[in-house]
Amino acid sequence: MIQGHQSWIFQSKPIILGCSAVGGPFEAKGALAGEFDLLHEDIWLGQDSFEKAEKKLLEEACNLAIKNSKVKKDDINFFLSGDLMNQITSSSFSARSLKIPYLGIFGACSSSMEGLALASFIVDSGGANYVLCGTSSHNAASEKQFRYPTEYGGQKPPTSQWTVTGAGAAVIGKGYDRPKVTSATIGKVMDMGISDPFNMGAAMAPAAVDTIEAHFRDLHRDPSYYDVIATGDLGRIGHNIAKKMLKDDGFEFPQGVFTDCGILIYKKDQPVFSGGSGCACSATVTYGHFLKEMKRKKIKKMLIVATGALMSPMSYQQKESIPCVAHGVSIEA
Amino acid sequence: MIQGHQSWIFQSKPIILGCSAVGGPFEAKGALAGEFDLLHEDIWLGQDSFEKAEKKLLEEACNLAIKNSKVKKDDINFFLSGDLMNQITSSSFSARSLKIPYLGIFGACSSSMEGLALASFIVDSGGANYVLCGTSSHNAASEKQFRYPTEYGGQKPPTSQWTVTGAGAAVIGKGYDRPKVTSATIGKVMDMGISDPFNMGAAMAPAAVDTIEAHFRDLHRDPSYYDVIATGDLGRIGHNIAKKMLKDDGFEFPQGVFTDCGILIYKKDQPVFSGGSGCACSATVTYGHFLKEMKRKKIKKMLIVATGALMSPMSYQQKESIPCVAHGVSIEA
User: Fold this and answer.
1) Other CB atoms within 10 Å distance of the CB of residue B245
2) In this complex, which of B6, B100, B189 lies closest to A95 when CB atoms are compared?
3) Which residues of chain B have pLDDT under 50?
4) A186: which chain B residues are within 8 Å (Cβ-Cβ)?
5) How far is CA B124 from the centre of its chain?
6) In a mutagenesis test of the B interface, which of A7, A96, A195 is the best target, namely the one with the most B β-carbons within 10 Å?
7) A54 backbone dihedrals φ, ψ, rounded to 5°
8) Is B76 in the A-facing interface, judged by CB distances under 8 Å?
């Protein structure tokens, strides 16, 4: 039910029955390689296009999440998914093979938490027994669509980020003894006038800050409530901007609480510029790493704030700045 | 709450507090011109790109729906919107100017009813006091993105359809004395192997049939329950295929009940080939025409089944067939 202006409290505490994280070769060399359910050595996944490889990543993540949840696929009422490809083809083509009634969503890289928020809301409200949500991204498919094909070997500025090749999915239902989704905050679109597609972190930081502050306001919470508050893919530059903006507004975080999935996923010596990005960044770090940390009893309460840059190559060509959004979901042990 | 496998019954009967239909110059010459709230003579709407013109159509539709609903914009909890542009920029850029917490959706031309279904579900479940949902399409922007720029003057086969230039929006809340949204059925992705992007009607017909049959099954209803069952944008060819498929499965409709927004919107002498299409087709015909018919007491119960073709130009180039989906929403006086 609604809490404050833009948040939901899930009173029946829907749980994550099963989830999954699938990654590519660059993620297999990353800092969280051990946390993935499945890693691929081949960036093509044996497919004849990067787009088909991304679809395969998402299908694998969905099927693994279903397997881990021990729910029968036919019992799942709805599949919620979104991704970065034009017309979210990775999601829609996965919906075709999954054969589960399908709601397509789009929030760019915030799609991971948009899907988890809506899935949890639907289950909590009795609108489904089981909902599958997922998202994916593929480095080479994204670069080709949004910037330049990777084969060109174009140079990038240090503010740029590295799109994660991977997919994450989760099956939400009711029950106990699993991580509970307890609340969600739906973000407003924020745009501070940044128009540089090689500096998404800075563009998205104000959206993350706005959603985090709305979450605290709506739920009467402060940073001390959480063990982890993780932004989706601000990277080092965007995350530091967000931290400073929050500090200026009076929010300080205990050491180690405020982090970013895009900073955590790769090793420091990997050439990822400001950090990881892409729909799969927050999805794989949440479903792969954080939920395992919860199982290992290292985290009890976390807030994942997935951030999305909502521009298109066309809007950039037409001199528009970059509108951004962030959706926050809290998960508790 | 869930009813059957893939439908929702709205027990608190969320109502359409206000809605709107905005159209372009071709719609102003159409069969339903008198049903629009606002019509533009200029296909550019004074903007310097077709994409910006589409965004303006959606912003206008949203602001008109809010005005007609008499709800204060700041009281609206969420804005749900999707469109055909890559990265649904019309919706996301409208969300930027509206400043309402935003959930982006994508179901191609089914986005109209995906948005209305989710908005009604959220209000019905106490997840919001007010939700705004909207969608838009622009003929020249769509042709440029999906096929060829209209300036080329390319020829088209008779199976092709004419994308509606327009936008529709609705504000959903609780109350009485207005049309009630009573149920919704979320569709599965169907793909019968059609790969011709100039024959969307035929590609989408099986999705419409699957959703209509799921709706009857889940809600224990048959065609006699409704005064109008309207598909979104199958056009003449797709609609006849759907009619035949439904007849083969034992569903016959009383005279005049089964229709299609894409057939209704234009006059017979307009050169629209098989009929209208685009996200705005079902949105403007529903929010402009059908709801006015309900006010005029000519319709009491209707089921709108918006259909969407989920391919992209890239998936077509990669020799994929066209996956399609349809979402049905019932509205009662």
Assistant:
1) 17
2) B189
3) none
4) 78, 101-103
5) 21
6) A96
7) -65, -40
8) no
Least Cα distance to B310 among B118, B77, B185, B146 occurs for B146
Q: Which residue in B51, B89, B311 is closest to A87 by CB distance?
A: B311
Cα-Cα end-to-end distance for chain B:
21
Taking only residues 10 to 39 of chain B, the set having a beta carbon closer than 8 angstroms to any beta carbon of chain A reads none
Q: What CA–CA distance (Å, rounded) separates A331 from A303?
A: 6
- Cα end-to-end distance, chain A, whole Å: 21
Q: Which residues in chain A have Cβ-Cβ distances shorter than 8 Å to B116?
A: none
| C-alpha dist (Å) from residue B77 to B11, B122, B127 | 20, 10, 9
Distance from CA of B127 to the nearest CA of A (A): 4
pLDDT digits (tens, 9 = 90+) for A115-156: 999 999 999 999 999 999 999 999 999 999 999 999 999 899
Residue B22's CB is within 10 A of a number of other CB atoms, namely 32
CB contact under 8 A, B106 and A106: yes
B87 touches chain A (CB under 8 A): yes
Give the pLDDT score at A75.
98
Scanning the structure block, which residue is given the tokens 């999707």?
A: B82
Q: The tokens of A210 are what?
A: 């706005």
Burial class (CB in 10 A: 0-12, 13-18, 19+), A158: exposed
3-state secondary structure of B310: coil
- Mean pLDDT for the stretch of residues A160-164: 97
The rounded Cα B46 to chain-centroid distance in angstroms is 25
What global pTM score does this model have?
0.98
Q: Is the dihedral of CA B36, B39, B45, B49 positive or negative?
A: positive
Q: What is the pLDDT of residues A67-120, one digit of tens each?
A: 999 999 999 999 999 999 999 999 999 999 999 999 999 999 999 999 999 999
Q: Is A244 an 8 Å CB contact of chain B? A: no
Looking at every residue in chain A, the average pLDDT score rounds to: 97
Tokens of A98: 């999954």
Distance of alpha carbon A201 from alpha carbon A199, whole angstroms: 6
Report helix angle A235-248 to A200-219, nearest 10.
40
Q: How far is A47 from chain B (nearest CA, A)?
A: 12
Spatial CA neighbour of B330 closest among B258, B206, B228: B228
Q: How far is A255 from chain B, CA to nearest CA, in Å?
A: 30
* pLDDT band of A36, cuts 50, 70, 90: very high
Total residue length of chain B: 333
Q: Is B149 within 8 Å of chain A by CB?
A: no
